[in-house]
Design a protein that fits this description.
The chain has 370 residues and is α/β, with parallel strands linked by helices. It folds into 2 domains: 4-266, Spore Coat Polysaccharide Biosynthesis Protein SpsA, Chain A; 283-366, Hexapeptide repeat proteins (UDP N-Acetylglucosamine Acyltransferase, domain 1, 3 Solenoid), CATH 2.160.10.10. Helix content is 22%, strand content 27%. It is built from 10 helices and 28 strands. The protein has helices at residues 39-48, 63-69, 91-94, 103-108, 110-114, 136-145, 200-213, 218-224, 246-256, 259-266; strands at 4-8, 30-31, 35-36, 52-57, 84-87, 122-126, 130-131, 150-155, 167-172, 175-181, 190-199, 231-235, 241-242, 283-284, 289-291, 294-295, 300-301, 304-306, 309-310, 315-316, 321-323, 326-327, 332-333, 338-340, 342-344, 349-350, 355-357, 364-366. Strand 2 (30-31) and strand 3 (35-36) form a beta hairpin. It starts with a strand and ends with a strand.
């Protein structure tokens, strides 16, 4: 297989994630007990090919991203050999030009693309907020078999939230017939998951054309060129969730607690890698009761946990009750407190005897260190 360049793009709908992105990049939103959102697209790319360039387009709030990725060694990558580079990005969003896939991010990093070796044939663009275990090898095989110029990834009959900024594809067989933006009143179409495969030569041509015309949105340009290029579609099988809101994050977290979703995401030959941490095993006290929960290492549990995810180094005190909730790293639920249908961000504290409760349709988010 020829060398592949994978680009993890920024998400255009970060504002819908509210305080989850107040102190961190969207890439590093914690999920599933020990993972970050970027672990899914990055692992998908690493599982695709051994010979790989990866560029991660960051944001102005990039510190958490740099801290998480380090040198890329936990994904068998290395910044020293240019296998992994964190690229500048998010400039267009800061000046108000919000796009589905920002061409400005590619233009700002033109040097990265120019320096790719001659044997890079395909460029894979991947959304950073897509939770799925995607088999890119199968997608590349289909792309080549179709002799496609580009292949857009979509999820048929998507059952999650579709925000007003999402893009839908009108598909006929493997062909993309039309691209529909979220503000379009027309019905129908399948959810585009912000990921695609494109031939490198065409990508560079589009980049040059975009610079010349001052275009902002990559997908808008693709829409204008549907009749000029061979644009195919690929329906991603299995579990796919777009983390585009607090509700979507909560729903995805609850899905991970189900056996089918958990096995599909984490127990395949295509592993999901993350930053390694050496923690002591979880400590369960005499009064601890845990049912249908995912509890990461380093936690201390003396209360009751049911149908919830508890991250590393969280502390659940005696008499505390947790149900249908996400308790992030370092969060503390003190004695006799009750937390139901809530998300506690890192190092948040629920004081003794307090009640934090809501419904599954409107989960409460307690901010980081609150």
């Amino acid at each position: 297989m020829k060398k592949i360049a994978g680009i993890i793009i920024n998400s255009s709908n970060q504002l819908d994630l509210d305080a989850l992105v107040k102190h961190r990049s969207i890439h590093t939103i914690p999920i599933g007990g020990k993972y970050r959102l970027i672990d899914f697209p990055l692992s998908n790319l690493v599982n695709m090919a051994q010979d790989l360039y990866v560029g991660v387009i960051g944001s102005y709030n990039y510190r958490s991203l740099v801290d998480h990725l380090k040198q890329g060694q936990d994904w068998n990558l290395s910044r020293k050999s240019n296998d992994l580079l964190i690229l500048q990005g998010d400039r267009s969003a800061k000046i108000g030009q919000v796009s589905r896939i920002s061409i400005q991010d590619f233009v700002d990093n033109r040097e990265f693309f120019d320096k790719l070796s001659d044997d890079v044939e395909h460029i894979v663009l991947s959304g950073t907020n897509v939770v799925s275990n995607i088999d890119y090898r199968a997608i590349l095989d289909k792309h080549d078999a179709n002799q496609a110029d580009m292949t857009l990834l979509y999820k048929e009959n998507y059952d999650g939230e579709i925000q007003n900024k999402e893009v839908r594809l009108v598909v006929d067989g493997d062909d993309v017939k039309e691209i529909i933006y979220g503000n379009d009143k027309r019905q129908g179409g399948e959810l585009f998951i912000d990921s695609l495969v494109i031939n490198r030569t065409l990508f560079m041509q589009i980049l040059a054309e975009a610079e010349k015309r001052g275009l902002v949105d990559f997908i808008e340009l693709v829409d204008q060129c549907l009749s000029d290029y061979k644009v195919k579609a690929y329906n991603v099988p299995g579990y796919v969730k777009i983390i585009n809101s607090i509700q979507a994050y909560f729903n995805c977290s609850m899905d991970i607690l189900t056996c089918d979703t958990n096995l599909e995401l984490f127990k395949q030959e295509r592993k999901v890698y993350t930053k390694a941490k050496d923690n002591h095993p979880t400590v369960y006290g005499k009064e601890a009761k845990v049912k249908k929960a995912l509890v990461a290492s380093g936690a201390i549990v003396n209360g009751t946990i049911e149908e919830s995810i508890v991250f590393r180094n969280a502390t659940i005190h005696e008499g505390a009750k947790i149900k249908n909730s996400v308790i992030m790293q370092g969060a503390v639920v003190e004695k006799d407190a009750v937390v139901v249908n809530a998300i506690l961000d890192k190092n948040a504290v629920v004081k003794q005897g307090e009640f934090i409760t809501s419904t599954t349709k409107e989960p409460i988010l307690i901010q980081k260190r609150a």
